[in-house]
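Chain particulars:
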Amino acid sequence: MHAVLTMLPEMCVIVAVWITFGAVCFGLGWGALRLAGGRVGQAEDRFAAFWAGWAAMIALLQVWYLFLPVRLAALVVLVGLGLLLLAGFLMWGGYARSSAPAEAAEDIRRTTPKARLILTGYLVVLAGFAFWLANRAMGPLNPPYDTGLYHLNGIRWMIEYPAVPGLGNLHVRFSTMPSYFLYMGVLDAILWQGRCWNLAHGLLLWAAVAQVVWSGFKVLTPSRFQLHDLIALLFFPLILRFCFLEASSTAYDLPVFLLGFVMYVQLARLLDTVGDSNTIATVVLSAGTAAVTIKISAAVLVLLTATVLLLWARRHRQFTWRTTFAWMTLPALLGIGWAVRNVIFCGYPFPPSTALGIPVGWKVPAYVMTDQTKVIMAWARDYRRPVDEVLSNWEWLWPWFKGVIGFYRIEVTIPLALFLVAVFAALFAGSTRRSRVSMWNVMFVLPPVAALVFWFFTAPDQRFAGAAFWWLAAGAVALLCAAGGGASRARCWVPVVVLSLVLVLWFDARLTKYTRPGPLASGHYPIPVPVVKLFTTSSGLRMFVPVKGDQVWDSQLPATPYPDSRLRLRCEGDIRQGFTLNPK
């Protein structure tokens, strides 16, 4: 423990960065929600504002990156704009402009002693958790295979250059670089350059845990505990597991999962009939679109969720073209910026799909994109066998099934089991008592069902499923609570809290509790450094390639594990003009 205390100064810096960036995201989110006609009144609205602001930050960075690299200037603009909007919220958010200070003081005076005690306890727990999470974030880089393959080098490209045409010709994985790398790139400009992975995941995890813990504290006042709180608590064991295992990583499966969590919690607020519908709809659509710009495999879940949401608005007479336009403004900015950036990288708006390809001079050959899609699909089924062999038959199915069910217990097996039990229990409860199950309880479960069907027939690896499995389980539990009627619904939180605690104790309590100092200054851990050599193409372009294997890590640019002698610069001596391939 004494060794961990030597890391305290750096942990304080990390927490300070998270607080600052959290405030920036909240300010941006409040501004985005105001433009969409939403309000930020309840505590849950403040969590929603953070996630809307994070999506707005991604949208702004995508526009910035079309013209300029993501460096200190981008950070200054984002922080300045976010803090300016935060000041606007503190002055006028939720109050009449002329009497905001007086009304705020009156709200504080009317707060009961019990509420103050709960709020104080909540803040203490949240602060303690932040420092523990900062310790986890200082751990060694959790290196999935792709971290060395293209993650770190992709982030370096975004920091050093604006969007480079034909970057996918240098490294096919650069064709599908996620918008999440822009967020990591702007964090890299703060401090510890080259170590954005110590900061990025932790902020999102802290925000998600803050929302779950708030729902947990509402158990102390059961009359305020609602369906969306129950949903949040169901997700807690896996979110906490991510805190143990993914706090220091570049893997972008985590933000996709967390954005799916946010989407369903917000939809559950519609079932609770609490919160402003403009705020909820804007957050759901923005979080979903941000997830698609990170990982296109989330598209089916997001598109169906958007469809159900618009049907809900029409059914409840809240659908107008004006409100729909307001809800879609931020998602449209996200989607358009993402598609334009993709066209610059590879010539296709929705890679790795070759649909709607644009005839530009730097376009990645269609067969390269198709082969990459086949590799991903085969790897998700059985990475040990040749691609064509895996895709030509169903022999992979049984080994795949045993691997997914047997290994990914908390990610797949438990939510599937919970889904089945809850559905059968809901059917039994509905047949033995009078209860009115809202059609929307069922409708809100359809998106993960369709998403998992699509997932199974494309790339059925657990990490490509996002939050779909736990969304499915949470939706079934919500259905059970509705089928149980009023008295049963009021007691639903008891088994959910017990289940969450059991899963935490079973899966998370055995993990390493804290990170010991690393060998570098202030307790940090080093990044692997590859041994590279120079490769010269037929045009004279020189690039760095690994001597062994395909891990380039954070190598000097340009680097690729897949050198092609046909590669050349579009404009001799100017890497900003991008790459293209000479014809065969």
